[in-house]
Amino acid sequence: MTPAAIDTTILAVLAPFAAAVVAPFATKIFKHNAAWILALVPAWIFYHFAGYIGPVSHGETFTPAVEWAPSYGINLSFYIDGLSTLFALLISGIGTFIILYAGGYLNGHPQQGRFFSFLFLFMGAMLGLVTGNNLITLFIFWELTSITSFLLIGFDHLRAASRRAALQALVVTGGGGLSLLAAFILIIGATGEIEMSVLLSSPDVIKNSGLYLPIFILVLGGAFTKSAQFPFHFWLPNAMEAPTPVSAFLHSATMVKAGVYLLMRMHPLLGDTELWTTVLPIFGGVTLLVGTILAVRQTDLKLMLAYTTVASLGLLVMLVGTSWEKALEGAVLYLLAHSLFKGALFMVAGIIDHETGTRDVTKLGGLRGAMPITFAAACLAALSMSGLPPFIGFIAKEVLYEGTWEMGAGSLLVTGTAVLGNSLMLVIAAAVAIKPFFGPAVETPKHAHEGPVLLFAGPLVLSLAGFAAAFFAHQTGELFIGPMLSSLTGQSAHVDLHLIPGYISAPLILSVLTVALGVVLYLQLARLRALVASVLAAIGWGPDKGFDQFVAGIVSLSAAVTRLVQGGKMQTYMMLTFGVTAAAVLVPAFLNDGLPSMPAMPDYAFYEWGILGMAFLGLIAVLVAKTRLTAIVSLGIQGFAVALIFMLFGAPDLSFTQFMVETLSVVILALVMTRLNLSPRDHRPAGAALVTGAISAGVGAGIALTLMAITQQPFDSRLSDFFTAYSRTIAHGRNIVNVIIVDFRGFDTLGEIAVVVLAGLCVLALIRVRTKPEVKVDEDASAEALAKRVEAS
To answer: pLDDT tens, 90-134?
Structure first.
C-alpha cells in the first residue's frame, strides 16, 4: 500500500462523522433520494478497505497514524490486519445497505435526517473501534458506540419503552466501558506500551506480569457487557424497541460483536491460559443455551432473532475461549456467516412489519405470494442460519464442530452444548422463514404487499453473499478467514475450506444430528414454547427485573445521601466541608510519615509575646461571646494580630492590606448581621459541640502541620528568581508583588474578583430578605364576616 492509501485510511475511518453532519441537509435537499446519495459514503469505505484484502492475506499489517496528544503518547493510530479488515468490510458493506434500508423504512418520517446522522455517527465509532491501535483512542471509540447506540435505541423518545431500553443499554455497556478503561490503564502500567501493534509483538508480556488476573477480569467486564453475555444478556433484546434498521445494524452485525472483537484482539495477549479456557467456555456456553431457550418462547419476529443473536454471541465466546486453532477458525467463519444471515433476517422482519403492520408470527401466514422477493431472501438467510448447504453457515458449523470435537479436554461438553444450541437456532430460523410465508393467508392490519427496492435490496444481497461465500469457499478461506485467524493465533495460519465434505466424518454426523434434532423440536414448537413460558413464569425474577431493582436502589441510595449531605442546613455543609479538608490534610501526612519535626521554643521579645497573647485572647472572646455580633467583632482581633505580625517581619504593605481587609470584613459582616436575626447564639448539645470542636481542631492542626512541613523543606528559589528577573523586562513593573497579582497571575486575580462579586450578590440577597409580619386572625370576626356575605348573597 502506498503512503497516500494509508493516509486515505484515516479519512475512511473519519468519513462517517462528516456524513453525519451532512445527512440532515441532504435529506431536506434530496428527500426520497437522499438514501442513494448517502449510501455512497459507506460504499466508498468498503471499496477502500477492500484494497487491503490482498496485502493482508499475504501477512502484511499497516499502522497509519496522526498525532493527537503527543505529550501524553496518544495518537489517532489505526492497526490494519486480517481481523480489523474483515470487521471494517462488514461494517461498511452492511452499513451501505442499512442506509438504503433506512431510506425506505423511514420514508417520510420528519426526523429521518436525524436518524441518518445517528447511523453515521455509530458507523464511524465502530470503524474506529475495530481499527484502533492506540489503547486510549480505541477506548474513546468504544464509548462512542455506547453513546450513539443510546441515541439510536431511544430514537422514538416519546415512547417510555424506547427510553428505558436506551437507558438500560447505556448503563450496562457504559459500565463495561469503565471496566475496559481500567484494564487498559493496568496494561499500560504493566507494559509501558500504549499501542496494540507493539503489545502484539510481545504477546507474553501481560501473561507473565502480576497484573494478569485483574486485567483479565476487567477485559471480560467490557467484552461481556458489550456482547450481551450472561448475565448481561437482557439489554440486547430490549434494544429491539429501536427501529428495525438499528436492530439490523447495531445488534446483529456490528455493535454487539464489539465484545467478541475485543476478545479476539486480546487473544494473543490473554488467551490460551487455564483461566481463559475455563471462564470463557462456561459463560459462552450458558449464554448460548439461555439465548436459544428464551428465543423459543417469543412470538415477535425481532425478539426471536434478538435472542438468537445473544445465543450466537455466546457460541462465539465459547469458541474463542477454547484457544484451539480449529475452533478459532470455526469462530471466525461463524462470525462472518452470522453477520450476513442475521442482518438479512432482521431486515426481513422489518419488511414484514412495515408492509403488514405486525411482527407477531402467530398472526402471519401465506405471505409468499404477496411478498415473493422477501420470501426468497428469508429462505436463503434462514438456510444459512440453520447450517444447511450450500451456504457459509453450513461450512462454519462443520469447521466449529471439527474444532470442538478434536480439542481434547472438555470436548464432549462443549460439542454437546454447540449441537443443542444450533438445533434450537434451526428451530427459530425455520419459524422465521416458514411461519409467516406458508399456510393459509391471514388478514393483517395492513394489506400485505412487497416492499420497495430500498427495503428488499439489503436482505437479498446479504443472503446471496452467504451463498457466494460458500460457493467460493477456497477464496473465502484464503482472503478472509486465514488472515483473521492469523490475528487470533499470532502466527501465520493456512485455511482450506470446501463446500462439499470429502468423506463421512464426526463433524458431518454432528451436523446431521443437529438438523434432525432441530426438525423434531420445530414440529413441537408450540408445546416447547408453552413449556419454556411456564418454566420462566415459575422462576419469576430475572436479570431484566433485577436491573430495574438495581436502578431503583441506586436512586434511593442517592436520595438518602443527598438528604444527608444536602439537607438545607448551613451547619451540615460547613461540617462536611471542613471535615473533608481536615481528612485530606491529616490522613496523607500520617500514612506517609509526612509529619514535620517539632520546632524548639522560640525566644520571643515581650511585645511579640504580647501580640500572640492578644490573638489568644481574641480566640477566647469568640468562644465565650454571648451574641453573634460580639463574636464577629471579636473575630477581627485575630486579623489585627496577623497584621501586626506581618509588620514585625518587615512587610508593611502586606500589613496595611491585612488591616484594611480585616476592618472592611468586620464592618460589612456587622452591617449584614444587623439586618438579620442577632439573638443570642444557638445552644448546641455537648455531643454536637464536641464534634464541631474536633473538626475545627483537626483543620487547624492540619494547616499548622502542613505549614511547618513546608517551611522545613529546603527553599527552592527558582520561582522567586523568575519573578525577580522578568517582572521588569516582561511586565514592566518594579513592584514584584503587584506584577505577580496583576500580570503573572492575572487570571487568578480575575477569578478571585469573580468570587468576591458572587459573595457580594449573596450578601445583597441576605440583606433584602424580609420576614413577613405574622398576621393574627380573629377567627370569630372572620366567621361573622363570612356569615354576613352569605346572607347578603
So the answer is: 999 999 999 999 999 998 888 999 999 999 999 999 999 999 999
**What is the rounded CA–CA span in Å between residue 147 and residue 174?**
8
User: Over the chain, what is the mean pLDDT?
Assistant: 87
710 to 132, 597, 642, 716: CA distances (angstroms) = 46, 11, 19, 11
Asked if residue 665 lies in contact with residue 760, where contact means CB atoms within 8 angstroms, the answer is no
For residues 82 and 485, give the distance between their C-alpha atoms in angstroms, rounded to a whole number.
8
Cβ–Cβ under 8 Å, residues 604 and 649: no
Structure confidence at residue 750 as a pLDDT band (50, 70, 90): confident
192-to-38, 266, 325 alpha-carbon distances in Å: 42, 17, 30
Q: For the chain, how many helices (H) and strands (E)?
A: 34, 2
Distance of CA 232 to the CA centre of its chain: 14
CB 460 within 8 A of CB 308: no
Q: What is the CB-side half-sphere exposure of residue 719 using CA atoms within 13 A?
A: 6
Q: Are 364 and 442 in contact (CB under 8 A)?
A: yes
Q: For residue 71, give the C-alpha cell.
A: 505529550
| Cα–Cα distance measured from residue 368 to residue 434, given in angstroms and rounded to the nearest whole number | 9
What is the Cα–Cα distance from 294 to 642, expressed in whole angstroms?
A: 75
The DSSP string of 339-406 is HHHHHHHHHHHHHHHHHHS--BGGG----TTT-HHHHHHHHHHHHHHTT-TTSHHHHHHHHHHHHHHS
Instruction: Indicate the pLDDT class of residue 55, thresholds 50, 70 and 90.
Output: very high
Q: Tell me the percentage of the chain whose pLDDT exceeds 90.
A: 51
Contact 238, 99 (CB under 8 A): no
pTM of the predicted model as reported, rounded to 2 decimal places = 0.81
- Residue 516 predicted with pLDDT over 70: yes
Mean pLDDT across the stretch 724-731? 84
For residue 621, pLDDT beyond 90: no
Q: Is the peptide bond before 70 cis (omega within 30 degrees of 0)?
A: no
Under a CB-based contact definition with an 8 Å cutoff, are residues 234 and 544 in contact?
yes
Q: Which three cell numbers stand for residue 686?
A: 455537648
Q: How far apart are CA 296 and CA 313, in angstroms?
A: 17
Give residues with Cβ within 8 angstroms of 671, minimum separation 6: none
Name every residue whose Cβ is closer than 8 Å to that of residue 789 and which is 6 or more positions away in sequence. Answer: none
Q: Using CA atoms, how far apart are residues 387 and 398, in angstroms rounded to an integer?
A: 8
Which phi and psi (to 5°) does residue 62 adopt?
A: -135, 145
